[in-house]
Specification:
By secondary structure, this protein is mainly alpha-helical. Helices cover 69% and strands 2% of the residues. The chain is built from 16 helices and 2 strands. It has helices at 9-17, 22-30, 33-57, 61-66, 81-88, 97-128, 134-143, 149-162, 183-206, 211-219, 224-235, 237-252, 256-262, 271-281, 286-306, 308-316, and strands spanning 164-166, 169-172. It has a two-stranded antiparallel sheet. The longest helix is centred in the middle third of the chain and has 32 residues, at 97-128.
Length: 322
């Protein structure tokens, strides 16, 4: 005959409420009232300058140069002339950002898609295809991350302008691109600079996929292209979106690479080149600088907000368990 041992309800409840894993403890701390207040304060501090820039971009010139943006609420004056001049103005003092905006879009989209496509394929091959030298290739790609971008600018520029020669034999001729064709050089440069980090990050996600899932697909007769297309890509979408946002922000805000490989002409120069010219030669035109700056950040804001849920999932995937 056994005797039942009474268990107090409070003890059982407390044992259930205690987080038993690292992930549970982290989530409990992040969901506390203190963490919420700190998050709100940080969000306000980060958003306030952007809000002030947005308000200033719609204020008349005399108001911007004499009063702060916060006086807009006591003396509201509103105009679209700043954006009209910055985007479509015909005078030399205007921004004329509309064409540069198109150039930035043409540069950024392929410079994001190309490294993502190549890196996803390379990450799958290095993680799930057995071939000789696989580990050494991965180590080499990982080591390329320590090479500063500035060190590769001159060799890459010589590669475009002179081609590749060995012992007097031309292995690859010079590209000799001009005008809009220089976009190809910028795409190539951004892809080369982004691949080491992209392959490293995506490889970490791809290699953590369940081995049983891969083996089951192979038993069913699935080839590597089908496994990659139907299994791997849907599972690593958060990681692709996370790196895609980083790459988009980097390329969109880039000045050095685009200025060197695309030139500063109106046909290929991105918006950052024109904004630098406005700040250098028209530094007193504050009303145009504020509207031009907001035009340059509105697209990254839209991209980030639209992919925010994938971005958060990509950052947290695999970081905690439980």
């Amino acid at each position: 005959m056994t005797t039942a041992v009474p268990v107090r309800a409070g003890t059982a409840a407390s044992a259930t409420d205690q987080p038993t894993t690292v992930g549970g403890r982290v989530r409990k701390r992040l969901n506390s009232r203190t963490a919420t207040v700190v998050s709100i304060v940080i969000a306000v501090v980060w958003t306030l300058p952007t809000f002030g820039l947005f308000i200033s971009s719609f204020r008349p010139e005399d108001q911007i140069k004499t009063t702060g943006w916060w006086t807009f609420f006591s003396d509201p004056q509103f105009t679209f002339e700043n954006y009209q001049q910055v985007l479509f103005g015909r005078s030399s003092s205007s921004g004329q950002l509309a064409s540069y905006f198109v150039n930035s879009v043409v540069i950024t989209i392929p410079s994001v898609l190309f490294p993502l496509a190549f890196a996803a394929l390379a990450a799958y091959a290095l993680a799930w295809i057995n071939f000789r030298g696989r580990d050494w290739i991965y180590i080499g790609i990982f080591a390329l991350q320590i090479v500063p971008l500035q060190m590769a600018l001159v060799p890459l520029l010589r590669f475009f302008s002179q081609g590749v020669s060995l012992g007097g034999v031309t292995l690859m001729p010079a590209w000799d691109l001009a005008d809009e064709q220089r976009f190809v050089q910028v795409w190539f440069a951004h892809t080369c600079f982004a691949l080491p980090l992209a392959i490293f990050l995506l490889h970490n996600f791809v290699s953590q996929l369940p081995r049983d899932l891969m083996e089951a697909a192979r038993v069913d007769g699935a080839t590597h292209p089908k496994i990659f297309r139907t299994i791997v890509l849907p599972l690593i979408t958060p990681a692709i979106a996370a790196f895609g946002i980083f790459q988009f922000l980097w390329v969109w805000n880039d000045l050095l690479v685009a200025l060197i490989f695309a030139g500063g002409g109106d046909e290929t120069a991105p918006m950052t080149v024109r904004l630098a010219e406005m700040a250098g030669t028209r530094g007193s035109e504050w009303q145009r600088l504020t509207s031009g700056a907001f035009v340059s950040i509105v697209v990254p804001l839209i991209v980030f907000l639209s992919l925010q849920r994938y971005f958060v999932r990509g950052l947290l995937a695999g970081s905690v368990k439980g």
